[in-house]
Each structure stands twice: as structure tokens, then as C-alpha cells.
Amino acid sequence: MTYRALDQNSVIDYMRDLGGLDENIPAAAAMQADEVGDGNLNLVFIVRECEAPYRSVILKQALPYLRVAGESWPLTRERMRFETQALLKQNELAPELVPHVYHTDDGMSLVIMEYLANYEVMRRPLVARKRFPHFADHISTFMARTLFFTSDLYLTGVEKKGLQATFINPHLCKIQEDFVFTNPFMQSEENNWNPLIDNEVRAVRSNSDLKLAIAEMKAAYMTNGQALIHSDLHTGSIMVNGSGTKVIDPEFAFFGPMGFDIGALLENLVLNYLSHFAHTPDADERRAYQEYLLDLVREIWQQFAAKFEELWLQNSRGELMPAAYWDFPGGTEAFARFRSRYIAEVLHDVAGFGGCKMLRRMMGIVSVWDISSIDDPTERAIAERLAIRIGSRWVLERKRFTSIDGLIDVVREECRTVESRHDNT
Amino acid sequence: MTYRALDQNSVIDYMRDLGGLDENIPAAAAMQADEVGDGNLNLVFIVRECEAPYRSVILKQALPYLRVAGESWPLTRERMRFETQALLKQNELAPELVPHVYHTDDGMSLVIMEYLANYEVMRRPLVARKRFPHFADHISTFMARTLFFTSDLYLTGVEKKGLQATFINPHLCKIQEDFVFTNPFMQSEENNWNPLIDNEVRAVRSNSDLKLAIAEMKAAYMTNGQALIHSDLHTGSIMVNGSGTKVIDPEFAFFGPMGFDIGALLENLVLNYLSHFAHTPDADERRAYQEYLLDLVREIWQQFAAKFEELWLQNSRGELMPAAYWDFPGGTEAFARFRSRYIAEVLHDVAGFGGCKMLRRMMGIVSVWDISSIDDPTERAIAERLAIRIGSRWVLERKRFTSIDGLIDVVREECRTVESRHDNT
Fold first, then answer.
1. Which of A56, A361, B282, B355 could lock A115 by a disulfide, CB 3.0 to 4.6 Å apart?
2. Average pLDDT, chain B
3. How far is the alpha carbon of B323 from chain A, nearest alpha carbon, in Å?
4. What is the Cα–Cα distance from B205 to B185, expressed in whole angstroms?
5. How many CB atoms lie within 10 A of CB B82?
6. Which residues of chain B have a CB within 8 Å of the CB of A222?
């Protein structure tokens, strides 16, 4: 269909013209649509049935330009193709952990998908110290399955490259290349940071070892096509409630390093941890929740590693390697060492990418709400300085980590001074 | 044009229908065509003018099946698209070092290109101890320019991924994945080797450290999209004469690790070195030529590294990184360290990939003519055992090499026993 941007009336006509959605709103139903979301890059409508059973769906359509800047800043609508493709692939691999897709339309750059009633974006409940007993299990399953089944460990070379070809996503990659690995660490007009951490920001930008390490992580992000990654898996891309977890917004998806997804998630949990020095003045309450967050970090990694390796053991069809390659005296042990080294390299990447992303949130185009919502700049600076120290060490020390406890210990060590200061006041 | 396989008559009709080639054979000329080459995967014709100035061209057409196996083994004609695209790109980046392209036809899966009169494939003259005074300069220029200008160091992210998308080459990659990194090291019916080295072959196939390292090199080959590599740059893909060098047959081209090209070349020079224990019985002559070959190995790497770094310094437009990123006190030195670490990593890959390829030539589907032409199995086994020892050490010790001398020292150390044995006889 030829592209035209929908509004809250034409979206209903569009729904009717489809002739109804499988297992969801039928064409003849009375419907109403509301535009939600910021409508800057995308239009997002909730379309609801006006009568029982009051079913509802999300219709998301890409705009051909950045609306806030007017039509002068065209953006490619193609990003909706990547979002749609990724959603479909994730539905295939981890069906309960992403919204169901009801309908896609490349010409119109839109997707109609499950409305996640009773779910909320994870960032705010984490600030409110909510706990999600199934989250580590769910998200480790999501990552283990989406990463394993799109890697050379499961796919044949021909299958993997065929899939990779459909996920060459240069413009969205460019956004991460610029805003995660480059601009925050040099003069660039969109950067902003708390003036109280001027010295720390300057120090990062002129730390030779760190700049070199960040450049190496950028090279890895740009070249290491390990698996189909979400590529923006922070706690703002995850919706949760007491029983479920849904990963959304995969428009950045491409074949990149697995550690970038895992690093993004764990780094966001650490930033949330740091935000509680301000958000949770009661020391007992704070410590208890911070321990919960570090347990989450450990659980997510350990469950990921265990599930990933289990999938590997159960599925020996991949290009890397056929079972016959390990068929020699001592081959079982050699294969076990290969798996363990492979996963250890992913952990190094988790630290490297997680560290870069932690740093960029402190001095780039956009922080995270967990921290930007701390009103008092002095209180905010406490969390920010810690994030800079932890992020720097994760990047610089990435190759020495042999377990997730190494990354967690860095968090504890750097927070020790602040802990004791808080305890004394 | 709809595909049909040409023969020596229809090829001339095809040439006439083109209406003449720029700066080459005009449509009206009297022409004759001869089929050359093995005609197994491709048809190769030399088309010549029958009268002065007797110009000639090569017309190369992909067959849709492996001719020797009949039509039962279909192969994708698409490989000609990769060869053509790669030739055009290489002509743009290193114009004197590849055949000129006069005409391409995707529908017919053919390319018409420069006939390299007075050139010969490099393998045989190396066995005949010929020297090529310009070769190190030429081939290092070819590699430095084709690899640098297709990498993230020169291209923007969007440019590079656009180019990468046109070089997703799954079927040809699969051939290298199988025959370089997998099948030679396990039970596979096409493998063949000298029965005299049975023990050594068995030892490689059950050496856990080596198998693990080879699996890691395969993973790197499959995921590390650093630059547009030739991906089959052995001395059988290079034509030479006293003054010129031409790289041919780039149908395996895709975005892979730079070290795979350099490693293939250097490893082939080492295999040629080893072949002279049999081909050149005169000790003085042999030593002199072997020294020449090791000088070549050193020169090629050192000139490559110097030219590559110089291109990097002269062209600061690439995604990795903008000049502003290094604009801080000490930034010049940090950038120098980044370049030097980047090139050091390429050297590690040279050793890793070169070693894998050296091994596979001893126990896989096909050896190299340098060594397979040694008639006496006992003499051949001397070279083969050395290749296995050197290849194994290159792979296993790859990360400790800080200069090309490290790789060369391994060759000298392993050859010492044979040298002295030869000297005593």
C-alpha cells in the first residue's frame, strides 16, 4: 500500500479495510483510536473495541521524518521494517516474551501488535523499588534464545548469512555508533551533563587508556556479527508486571555482538542501583533493594550462561562446529572448553559494552530517567560520579573478569565510600 | 540477458552484439575464441583479433552446475556477481594490480576482462626459484588499499554497511568454512594425505588446544566483518612477471577479517619455502632462495603495515574514529597506540588464519602444487611434517606474536633439524 501517515480516524478505516485481525478485533466492530506515545519518530495508536469484549491492539507507524524538527530532518521509514522483522523473529524464538504481531504492512511502514494491558515500562517501578520475581528467568530466556538461535552455533552458515542480509541496518546502527561510542567522549553540541561533574567528564574525555578501549569496543560493535541482537535492550525497552516480561522496540536490531544486549541490561540495573542513594534515603530499605538489584545482575548473567550453554548442548546443528569435529579422545572436554571460552568472551563484552553505555549516559545526549529524576544536582552527582568510576573500570578491566562477581565487586568497591558517608549522616 | 552457456562460436556472436569494447576489440573485427582453463566451475575463453593489432580479452562465464559432476550438482551462478563486483571495486582501489574490466553481464553471469599476456600464475615460478623484485611492494599495496578503503577506518558506517550488503556471499563462504576450518580436522571423505604422515595428521585431529584454537579462528572468519577481503589470496590467485603483479579470481570476496588475506599469502610462501627441501637439492641454492622467501614474508608484512597506517593517517574520514575523538592532551599518542594495537591484532589473525590454512593443505581436500609436485613420498613428508609443526605453532601461539619476526622465527626453528640433516647428506 502507498505510504500515508494515519490519524485517529483513518487508522480505524485502515483496520476495517484489513477485514479483521486473527483472534482479535473483527472488521465490523465499533472501534475508537487514541494516539499515545511521543509521536516524534513514530505514531502509536491504541485501537479499542467500543463494546465487549473490549479488545484492543497497538498500531505503530513510522513517520518519514522527525516530527519535532519538521520535515527538514527526514528519517528512513525503513526502521519499521527492521522492527517488524525483529518482532516476528523474536515471536518465533521467545513467543511469550514479546508482543504478538497481528499484521504488518511494509508499504505503510506499520505493525499491528498486542496491546500490553497491565504492563509498565520497567524503569519507573525499579525506582519505586518494585520486585519482579520472574524477571531474571524471563529476560535470561529471551536473551539466551534470541542470541543462540540466530548465531553460527545454531544456524548453518548459509542460513545465518541469509538472515543477516535482511538485517543490515546502517542508519539505526549509526545512531548507536555516534551516541554510545563517539560523541559523548568528545566535543559535540548535543552532549549535556551535570556541571558538578565537569572534572570527571573532562577526565574521561582525556583518559588515553579509556579512549583507546572505547574505540576498540566501537570496532567490535561495528564488525562482530555474532547474532541478531536487540541492540537497545535497556530497562526502557522492557515492560513488566508481577508475572510477565515483554521486550519491545527492537528497531535497532542487527547482527552484532551478544554482549551488547546483556551489557545494556545489566548496566541499566547498576544505574538504577546508584539512583537509590538519592531515591531511597532510608539506609535499610536502600541496602535491601540494592542487594536485590545486584542479585538480579548475578542471576540474569548466570541463568543466561546456563541456558545458552544448555541450548548449545541440545542443538548440535550449527556451523560452529559439527559434532564430528569434537569426536576424538578428549574431544568432549575440548568442546566444553570451547563453550566456556566462548561464554567468557561474551562476559568480557558485557563489561566493555556495559561500561561504555554507563559512561555515555553521564555525559552524552541523554541520561536515564532513574538518575535524571534526581532533582538535587549534588545528590545526582553522587550517583553520576559512581557511574563514571564503575563504567570506566568495567571497560578498562573487561578482559580480567572471569565471572559476573568480578563486575559486581567493582560496583561494591566503588560504592563503599558513599555507603559509609550515608551511614554517618 | 537470459542466461545461456556460451561456446567458442556463440562467444564471438556475443562479442559482436555488444558493439565493441572500449579501447579494445571493435565489433567488426575478425575474432577467434579458444576455451582455456579447466571449465569445471566456469567457462573461460580467450577471444583474439585475427588481424593486427591482435588484441585479446578474457571472457569468463559461470556455469550453473559443476560440469564434472553433471547437472546433478547445481552451483549458484551468483558467484560471478561477487567476482565481478569485487573486480570492479579492486579496479577502483588498486587499478594496476588487477585485470581491467571491459564489460559485465549479470544475466549471463559473465565478465570480459583484460587478457594478461606475459603473466604466469605465481606458484610454478616460485618452485623454479624465480624472483620478483616488485612483488612485495605490489602485493602490500594491493592489500593495504583494498583492506583499508573498505574498512570502517575509511568508510562511514552507512557506506560500509551498504557495501557489505552487496557482498553477503554465503555459498562461497561455506566452502572456506568447510575446507579451511572444519573437514580437514575431522573424518570427512574428501580428505587425503600422505600415508607417511598418518601419525601427525591423527595428532592434529586429536589435539584439544589446536582444535579449540581452530574453532575460534573459524568463529572469527564467520563474524568479523572488518573489510572486503579477497578470501582466497594464495599464490595460485596471483599472476606475476618481472615487472607486474595481478590478483585474480576474487569470487570468494566478502566482508571478513583482514588477516585472512595476508595469512593466506604468507602461508603459501612458507609452504613454497618448505617445498625446496625437495625441489632444490643444492644446499647453497636452496638456502639462498629460502632466505629470499623469508625476506619476502617480512617485507610484505612490514610494507603492508606501513602503508596501511599511512593511509589511515592521510584519510581521517572513517567512522572509526573521527579526528575530534582524539583531540585531547595526549590524544595524538593515544591514536598512535590505537593504530598500533589494531595492526597488532591483524598480525595475530595472520598467524591464526595462516596456520589453519597451512594445516588444511596437509590433510584436507587439496594440497598446494608446490608440495604435491614432490614425487617421492618420503621427501614430501619432510615438507609436510614441517608444515604441520609450523602451522600448529602459528595457530597456538598467535596472540604472542608482536612482530613478523616471531612468525619467521617459528619457520627457522622448526626447519633447523631438517637443515642439519640435509647438510650432513
1. A56
2. 94
3. 10
4. 5
5. 23
6. 152, 157, 160, 319-320
The domains located in chain B, with CATH, are 10-114 (3.30.200.20), 120-423 (3.90.1200.10)
Q: What is the pLDDT of residue A265?
A: 98
Contact A320 B187 (CB under 8 A): no
- pLDDT of res. B418: 81
A161 min Cα distance to partner chain B (Å): 6
* 3-state secondary structure at position A225: coil
pTM recorded for the entire structure: 0.96
> What cell does A32 get?
475508537
CB-CB contact of A309 with A335 (8 Å): no
| Backbone angles phi and psi of A315, in degrees to 5 | -130, 95
Q: What number is the ipTM of this complex?
A: 0.95
How many Cβ atoms sit within 10 Å of the Cβ of residue A214? 27
B338 neighbourhood in chain A, CB within 8 Å:
212, 215-216
Residues of A in contact with B187 (CB under 8 A): 324, 327
Residue written as grid cell 505510504 = A3
pLDDT of residue B19: 85
- In the structure grid, which three cell numbers stand for residue B320, read together? 572509526
Q: What is the DSSP string of B80-148?
A: HHHHHHHHHHHHHHSGGGS--EEEEETTTTEEEEE--TT-EETHHHHHTT---TTHHHHHHHHHHHHHH
Kindly list the residues from chain B whose CB atom is less than 8 angstroms away from the CB atom of residue A182: 321-322, 325
- Which residue in B388, B396, B349 sits closest to B209, CA to CA? B396
CA–CA distances in Å: residue B350 to residues A420, B23, B185, B224: 51, 40, 20, 14
For residue B152, the distance in angstroms to the closest alpha carbon of chain A comes to: 8
Going by C-alpha positions, the residue among B309, B157, B230, B359 that lies closest to residue A182 is: B157
**CB contact at 8 A, A149 and A143:** no
Angle at Cα B327 formed by Cα B326 and Cα B330, nearest 5°?
Answer: 75
B178, B208, B252, best to mutate vs chain A, most A CBs in 10 Å: B208
Backbone angles phi, psi at A187, to 5 degrees: -60, 120
User: In a 10 Å sphere around its CB, with 0-12 CB exposed, 13-18 middle and 19+ buried, how is residue A418 labelled?
Assistant: middle
**Biggest CA pair distance of chain A:** 69
Nearest Cα of chain A lies from the Cα of B338 at a distance, in angstroms, of 6
pLDDT tens digits for B138-177?
Answer: 999 999 999 999 999 999 999 999 999 999 999 999 999 9
CB atoms within 10 A of CB A264: 25
Contact status, residue A108 vs residue A3, Cβ threshold 8 Å: yes
The verdict on a CB contact (< 8 Å) between A219 and B320 is yes
Is the CB of B225 less than 8 angstroms away from the CB of A226?
no
